[in-house]
Design a protein that fits this description.
The chain has 469 residues and is of the alpha/beta class. It has a domain at 146-376: Aldolase class I (TIM Barrel, Alpha-Beta Barrel). It is 34% helix and 20% strand. It has helices at residues 48-56, 63-76, 84-94, 130-133, 135-138, 142-164, 187-197, 212-216, 232-235, 243-253, 268-275, 281-290, 306-321, 347-359, 373-376, 455-466, and strands at residues 25-34, 42-44, 100-104, 110-112, 116-122, 176-178, 203-204, 228-229, 258-262, 296-300, 323-325, 331-333, 337-341, 367-371, 386-395, 398-401, 418-423, 426-431, 441-445, 448-449. A seven-stranded antiparallel sheet has the order 16-15-1-5-3-19-20. Strands 7-6-14-13-10-9-8 form a seven-stranded parallel sheet. The longest helix has 23 residues, at 142-164. It starts with 24 loop residues before the first strand and ends with a helix.
Amino acid sequence: MIENNICLLTDSYKVTHHYFYPKGTEKIYSYLESRVGAEFNKTIFYGLQYIIKKYFEGQVVTPERIDEADRLISAHIGEGIFNYDGWQYILDEHDGYLPVEIRAVPEGTPVDVSNVLMTVENTDSKSYWLPNYLESLLLQVWYPSTVATLSAEVRKLANFYLDVTGSCKDNLDFMLHDFGYRGATSTESSMLSGSAHLLSFSGTDTIPALTIPENYYNDSDLYGFSVQATEHSVMTSLGPEGEMEQILNVIDNAKEGILSIVIDSYNYRNFLTEAGKSGGELNEAILNFLDVENNKIVFRPDSGEPVSTTIDCLTLLAEGFGSHLTDKGYKVFDLNIGLLWGDGLNYQKIRDILFAMKSGGWAAENIIFGMGGGLHTAVNRDTQRNAFKCSAQLRDGEWHDIFKNPLDSSKKSKTGRFKLIKENDSFKTLPIDADGDDLLQTVFRNGELLIDDNFADIKQRALNYSNFL
């Protein structure tokens, strides 16, 4: 079968809708928003350019794709269901270029929920059925947008606690590390969500995400970095009786820079006690490593209750290596060491750990976080309550407002055609003919990408939000 056949990139039931719309329908106008009740009060819009470049741009309708879709839908739903004539019209009259217009807020922009993020309408009256046929694919922008939002909110949280504890902010860009590749649903999803994370942070172990800025966002700079680190297959190589020998082997063979060591292969408390024991072999190896300029060791407990285990580890490290106070009275390690918590995290657990650290007198700069499944797979479309709905239809030359208003009022949709404006620091969705400069830009029209954004510019828009206290 043909890969990425646009005629088949939809939900089954949408294939039947072309003959259900009222007679005289000329245009369908639909929009995307994050509805009231989202987890975070703003959504950072990101990922549309990727979707357009991969699936929409250029001649995407061909005779082979039409014929393949017709055969499959005939077997899947029934004969005569597939809109063969509609797709053939796009091929004949538009050379296979999609006759739709997509307008959207600039990627990286944090928009208050309950506002329009994107609109879609057909540009040829005979292709009125197309905008909502494309919903299934376009709405997948929810995923990178939600990950971008989550990472930005964690950055805001980290920034806040660094500030209130008088911490150095040199490591802010690395306070949340992406561990999500192995837990992602696919390599494509890991690339896209991993790149969304890079809008707010620079720490990642998801190497495929590093290709997105250059391949889809016109930017050959490198936006993600990592460090040398161990895992349990390394640390348990010599068994419990050989743990000390293997730890020394790791430190002895480590290159200059940052070294992350997992410490819970057997008993993290014994590990940290031994590490901080003055005159001990492990302690001396650590001190020798740290004696090299810019070298740092980060200790990673990988199991246990997150808050209590974190506080316990911080206490043990301070007892062994010493600490001093920031100008706001919070403890910071004397040596270039730190703690990494990367097990089972989400936004709420990170917040709980940082709050507990502040309550216990610990500066936020002592810790960094790693998030895998919580970043890549714990989010879903309802995290930010993303929805794509039709709000207006042109029939027989006259626009008709369309909306839904179910008993669940949180799912009430907008009506009419819109513009997005900004007043003071808040966004507002207004009727298309209202006063105010429209922030929605025509990104795609008739098969052509009209705004080809740079990853650095998108990242800066996101950082302007996540760095704000």
